[in-house]
Amino acid sequence: MAELLQVTVDFDRSHLIFPTLIGVILMLLGLAIALTHRRAIAGSGGMWSRAFAHMDKARFFGTLALTVIYFLLMVPVGNIWPNTGLGFLICSIPFVALTSILYMHERNGRSLIPAMIVAVVAPTLVWWLFTYVFALTLP
Prior knowledge:
mainly alpha
């Protein structure tokens, strides 16, 4: 009976549980949306061409590039200090800072200071919360 109340955690793979679970849920929801709205999706070519013509391409492609770089660097940096979450912390601070700068309308010292404070404090708070309060491993 006591064996039923025990949980064994494989810390080398525990950080993969929630991303995998969330990925599967998102794929199922996306498939449900595609199936239920397939006619609207198939007829939306004109809307997409207008959206691409009027979008802020620098911010759109900059966000895509920053996100890809962020996720590509997180695991190799995290492997330097395994199971500490420092890969998340070290990669998140410049990611949040650069994303904030990318979306600023005016880039001057007065607007950069709060953005840089948020870029340091927010990832540090998330890292502390996951590491010490929830005892979850981050990459």
